[in-house]
## 1
Amino acid sequence: MSSQSIRPLAIITGGSRGLGFEVSKALTLQGFDIALIAKDDQRLEAAAKLIREADRYHNGVSTSHISTFTCDLEQPDLVRKLIDSLKQSLATPSVLILAHGVMSEKMSKTLKTNDAEWRRVMAINLDSVFQLVNGIAPAMADARNGRVIIFSACLGRMSGPGNAGGLAPYRISKAGVNALVRNLAHETGLGARGFLVDATCPNHSRTDMGGPDAPRSAEEGAATAIWLAIRPFNAGDVTGVLWEDKQVVEW
Ligand SMILES: NC(=O)c1ccc[n+]([C@@H]2O[C@H](COP(=O)([O-])OP(=O)(O)OC[C@H]3O[C@@H](n4cnc5c(N)ncnc54)[C@H](OP(=O)(O)O)[C@@H]3O)[C@@H](O)[C@H]2O)c1
């Protein structure tokens, strides 16, 4: 399926539910074509259907091109196959949002967890993030028109309560995401070459991961990522940082 339209394209992981779904819906309503990625085929198709319906409801007609790609992002070989398939079937995206992720098990303290749990969380939360950025973002950087936004977490901050113990694989995977974002921004000219890369902490939000009692709605949790995808970028603005509520936070 090729994307021939002149609408900008956003590729979004985790698009089947939670924060990734909210971002996908909002960008569609803003005029983007979107490519959604998740593991569960049925959830992904249901999400695409809901987004089409929302587009039709808001815009009177749904003209957006919504494509879906299933992949288990825990499997590095499958992630590389996914990247090949995205490149073959889609135009270069202007936005790449990585909103997939898993929480580590409750008792996953450094001295209690095990290789399997460490590897599962690192593979999904950090390794696949590297692979997707490494595979998809070079064309965005070459086009001098790219925004990469990665969902991190305040639990991955090196300051404040960030790395204050417990949930070791999760916290450390997100600290890795923050470091990757900063490093890549420096490698690509800190925005001067039209390529921005940022991390966002959505704060505790009501999703399957955040649970029903979280203080924020999924819409609120997704708002900063949506803003990063479309914000104007002027001289003096920053990239390569962690954002929370559209403000830079130390990590
Ligand atoms: N919610 C919060 O309070 C909160 C707070 C801080 C940070 N975050 C971060 O925000 C991001 C989104 O969180 P969320 O609350 O929206 O999570 P969620 O509701 O649990 O959704 C997780 C998403 O990740 C996808 N995913 C998980 N494992 C995958 C795999 N192996 N392969 C492919 N896709 C996979 C899921 O796809 P399937 O539907 O196919 O399983 C789903 O779309 C995550 O990175 C999370 O760490 C969330």
Note: The beta strands are 9-13, 33-38, 66-70, 95-98, 146-151, 195-200, 242-244, 247-249.
## 2
Amino acid sequence: MVTDRSEARIAEIYDLLETVMDPGMPILSIVDLGMVRSVEAEPATVVTLTPTYIGCAATVDIVNRVRTTLCESGFGPVRVEIRHAPPWSSDWVSERGRALMRAGGIAPPPARGCGPSSPACPACGGARVDEISAHGASPCMSLWRCLDCKEPFGAFKCH
Ligand SMILES: [Zn+2]
């Protein structure tokens, strides 16, 4: 049963989850990355997460930090459930998450679907780019260089 009280608690839990950063990309929270599938507040706190792909995020670390963060704010005991189906998609990255990536000099994944298109340069917006390496700073990024401003940049892989 969803009551006004549980709705308010759910909103508070989401606010707290926005402070849990992704270990692979510490400028983004697990909410920004679209990893939080659902939150229940009553009768117990249950958070359902879909991790980004293996190597991109240390799932155990995230689960521990979700538990600690919520317990410290009085929402314990906390159950964290991991759901792998459907698999996480880069389509789930929020608008805020995309803006944070751009501000951090990272090209976000395309908003809808994975096409053959190249990322735009996050520094100058240029479309003339070259892929330097399929493996960037983390397994979820590839490395590119802009042919206009010559800046190298990471792009979040689409999947
Ligand atoms: Zn550029």
Note: The beta strands are 21-22, 25-29, 36-40, 45-49, 78-82, 106-107, 129-133, 141-146, 152-156.
